[in-house]
Amino acid sequence: MDRFAPQKGDKFSFGLWTVGNTGRDAWGDPTRPPLDPVHSVHRLAELGAWGVKFHDDDLVPFGSSQHERDRIVREFKQALSDSGMVVPMATTNLFSHPVFRDGAFTSADAAVRAFAVQKTMRAIDLGVELGATTYVFWGGREGAEVDAYRDPGEAITRFREAINFLLGYVRDQGYDLRFAIEPKPNEPRGDAYLPTVGHALAFIATLDHPEMVGLNPEFAHETMTGLNFVHALGQAIEAGKLFHVDLNDQRMGRFDQDYRFASEDPKRAFYVVKLLEASGYAGPRHFDAKAYRMEDEAGVWAFARGCMRSYLILKEKARQFDADGEIQGLLAELRAADTAYAGPTAATGYSSEAAAALKAQSFDAAAIGAIGRRQEELDQLVIELLLGVR
Ligand code: GCO
Ligand code: MN
Ligand code: MN
């Protein structure tokens, strides 16, 4: 029995666009043929995945007739029911067609903005028909290289207008659907609007129905800019806004690499898994990554298997962290020292009495400031755990 064999209950999912990635890049042609969505669903199910996701055009190619659409959807539904796979999330391609060359919801051109909203309403219908309960909004081409024409603040106003309209549509249709905004700093645009989790959180608070909108943070996106994805994830969880998560790997300061989960920075991936598992997050563990361009189809399935296995291995490491006597002993000592203070604090909430008491409190800052925080010891224990010698 392989204890790292993925099970449906692990809620692993992949996008058709990820396993179906053909290896095309800015310098080179595809290195693999496209995969038929029905084939991908069956292969993913065999590997132990639970869900599959798509952009409207991944499933129903842009410009398909109604007849074609109906046939594709019928066959895809059949594949889902034969394989036991689900579609927890769907999204819209608002970036491939030349009409979106300068943005979709934020385009300066009113016709483009209206077309983008129309395309999204239709894609929402498709996603809901196949069972999606989360709808992702990645900005794609919402951004700019030139700031001489469009006011970046107005772009945000336009973005809000589109999301509010689509929230109205979902409510009007009575769909059980929440939105998840996926920030990204750049690529394909020179600079994207809503570049980070923080920007997106601030935007969500300004929407008509903020309770229906959360985040889809991605490991690579925060990491590209040099930010700490674990911190972004933590803030999203704390805000009650982690509606979905895109897992992959990425080196800082590089182009958007979308590597196999945990392949570059297993230590940070460990903290991601540890945080997700401890948080009560019950949504998909979604891999938005792709196989190296040098791979063939067999390499794609090795990649998919690797993402899931690494997650489960790190989940076991997180359990070991919780069960390790030395680590837990050190944490308990640190906590005991950190909670020894019994005087007034901000944790009681504000009152004029509490303020007066705290103002009057005396602290021995020199003594407190002299305490070593033992993070060298703790971090070394984590490293030894991850390196497999504990
Ligand atoms: C990217 C994004 C996309 C989105 C996808 C779903 O960097 O291209 O991560 O893969 O996640 O469009 O919205
Ligand atoms: Mn990405
Ligand atoms: Mn993504």
Automatic annotation (TrEMBL):
<feature type="binding site">
    <location>
        <position position="246"/>
    </location>
    <ligand>
        <name>Mg(2+) 1</name>
    </ligand>
</feature>
<comment type="subunit">
    <text>Homotetramer.</text>
</comment>
<dbReference type="InterPro" id="IPR013453">
    <property type="entry name" value="XylA_actinobac"/>
</dbReference>
<dbReference type="InterPro" id="IPR036237">
    <property type="entry name" value="Xyl_isomerase-like_sf"/>
</dbReference>
<keyword id="KW-0460">Magnesium</keyword>
<feature type="binding site">
    <location>
        <position position="288"/>
    </location>
    <ligand>
        <name>Mg(2+) 1</name>
    </ligand>
</feature>
<dbReference type="InterPro" id="IPR001998">
    <property type="entry name" value="Xylose_isomerase"/>
</dbReference>
<feature type="active site">
    <location>
        <position position="55"/>
    </location>
</feature>
<keyword id="KW-0413">Isomerase</keyword>
<feature type="binding site">
    <location>
        <position position="218"/>
    </location>
    <ligand>
        <name>Mg(2+) 2</name>
    </ligand>
</feature>
<dbReference type="GO" id="GO:0000287">
    <property type="term" value="F:magnesium ion binding"/>
</dbReference>
<feature type="binding site">
    <location>
        <position position="182"/>
    </location>
    <ligand>
        <name>Mg(2+) 1</name>
    </ligand>
</feature>
<keyword id="KW-0479">Metal-binding</keyword>
<dbReference type="GO" id="GO:0042732">
    <property type="term" value="P:D-xylose metabolic process"/>
</dbReference>
<comment type="similarity">
    <text>Belongs to the xylose isomerase family.</text>
</comment>
<feature type="active site">
    <location>
        <position position="58"/>
    </location>
</feature>
<feature type="binding site">
    <location>
        <position position="218"/>
    </location>
    <ligand>
        <name>Mg(2+) 1</name>
    </ligand>
</feature>
<feature type="domain" description="Xylose isomerase-like TIM barrel">
    <location>
        <begin position="42"/>
        <end position="297"/>
    </location>
</feature>
<dbReference type="GO" id="GO:0009045">
    <property type="term" value="F:xylose isomerase activity"/>
</dbReference>
<keyword id="KW-0963">Cytoplasm</keyword>
<dbReference type="GO" id="GO:0005737">
    <property type="term" value="C:cytoplasm"/>
</dbReference>
<feature type="binding site">
    <location>
        <position position="221"/>
    </location>
    <ligand>
        <name>Mg(2+) 2</name>
    </ligand>
</feature>
<dbReference type="InterPro" id="IPR013022">
    <property type="entry name" value="Xyl_isomerase-like_TIM-brl"/>
</dbReference>
<dbReference type="Pfam" id="PF01261">
    <property type="entry name" value="AP_endonuc_2"/>
</dbReference>
<keyword id="KW-0859">Xylose metabolism</keyword>
<keyword id="KW-0119">Carbohydrate metabolism</keyword>
<protein>
    <recommendedName>
        <fullName>Xylose isomerase</fullName>
        <ecNumber>5.3.1.5</ecNumber>
    </recommendedName>
</protein>
